[in-house]
Amino acid sequence: AKRAGRGRAVVYGPALGEASRRMSQIEVALRDGLRNGQFHLHFQPKAEALTLRTIGVEALMRWNHPSLGTVSPGEFISAAERCGFINELGELALREAARAARELPNLTVAVNVSPLQLMEADFPERVRRVLAEAGVPPERLELEVTESVMLDDARGAIRRLHALREVGVRVALDDFGTGYSSLAYLRAFPFHTLKIDRSFIHSLGEQSNAHAIVDTIVHMARALGMRTVAEGVEDDIQLAAVRKMRCDEVQGYLISRPMPLDRLKAWLSGRPVQ
Ligand code: C2E
Ligand code: CA
Ligand code: CA
Ligand code: CA
Known about the structure:
Protein name: EAL domain-containing protein
Keywords: Membrane, Transmembrane, Transmembrane helix
Bound molecules: ligand C2E, calcium ion
Number of helices: 11
Shape: globular
Radius of gyration: 19 Å
Domain EAL: 23-272
Strand order of the largest sheet: 1-2-4-5-6-7-8-9
Helix content: 40-55%
Organism: Roseateles paludis
Largest sheet: 8 strands, mixed, barrel
């Protein structure tokens, strides 16, 4: 299958169904949405596995369009990547996350970064500037990248990741275990954190090899000096399993769904924070 990338020509005709009609509506609406402030972040807590103390949040983009309704990031992020809006959207996420970090003392704020953002040579400098303007210490920001950052321009991506480390932000490898050559990337770049994909966590407690895989990832990460996050923890069985395997952090609906900043602040008050 062809990977959707920059400059891919997409032709819509009457023969195409409802799904592609919606796709083209989304692409048209993106520009307006960016101009009219329709995008904002929700935040999902990350907790220390053993104590369930909140130690950070992941910022997740939300789009509420007046007529299209709620469009999922799965739909609009790839549309933004195709249409050349992802840098603008990514910058917006960074700024809003930095603002949020000021209101969330002691918590790390993680932002998802598209591979296309990392292809921009000045991305590390832009991150540094956003943090400086917001007055947020770089170590309060974590950037989550997926293995696909390495597909187009691995050397450039690795150079930028090193520059980001020098800026002082933390770097996490997202959806770990779902890419093609995860281990090669671990050799090429020292991530601070590995986020174990929720497909593995989901299968814990079932009769599957997921347990052996998660156990192996945690051991390897520990040996390489990286922290681990279990993504998509939804029940107590999964929590118990990842605790037993000494995974460092948990994130998922069991702790909380993503929520707007105001609700997060209310949720946090009265909870133990690091
Ligand atoms: P991701 O980075 O892997 O983010 C985690 C996704 O899993 C989020 O979906 C979150 O709501 C969902 N999730 C969290 N806990 C659970 C759970 O216990 N069970 C299940 N089933 N799901 C859980 P969301 O918000 O729909 O985001 C989907 C993807 O869109 C993200 O996956 C990320 O790749 C992308 N994305 C979201 N915001 C941004 C952004 O600002 N920039 C970029 N480049 N990508 C973003
Ligand atoms: Ca993520
Ligand atoms: Ca993930
Ligand atoms: Ca993902």
